[in-house]
Amino acid sequence: MIMVMGSIPEEVDIAIIGGGVGGYVAAIRAAELGKSVTLVEKEKLGGHCLNYACIPSKTLINIADILYEARNSQKLGINGNGISVDAKAMYDWRMGVSKKLEDGVGFLCKSNGVEVIKAQGTLLSSNRLQLTNGEELDFKKAIIATGSEPASLKGFDFGGNILDYKQALMLDRIPKSMVIIGAGYVAVEIGTLYAKLGCEVHIIARSDVLSKFDKDAVDILKKKMTQFGIKVHAGAEPVSHDSESVKLSNGEMVNAEIIVVAIGLKPYTDVLGIENTKVKQDKKGFIMVDNTLKTDDDNILAIGDVIGEPMLAHKAMRQGVIAAEVASGMKSGYDNIVVPAVIFSDPEVAIAGNITGEGLTITKFPMTAIGRAIAIGKEEGFVKIACDGEGIVKGIEIVGNNASSMIAEAALAIEMGAVAEDIADTIHPHPTFSEAVQEAAEAALGRPVHFFYGKKTGGIK
Ligand SMILES: Cc1cc2nc3c(=O)[nH]c(=O)nc-3n(C[C@H](O)[C@H](O)[C@H](O)COP(=O)(O)OP(=O)(O)OC[C@H]3O[C@@H](n4cnc5c(N)ncnc54)[C@H](O)[C@@H]3O)c2cc1C
Question: What lines the ligand 1 site, CB under 6 Å?
Answer without folding.
Answer: 17-23, 40-43, 47-49, 53-54, 57, 120-121, 145-148, 165, 186, 268, 272, 304-306, 311-314, 316, 344
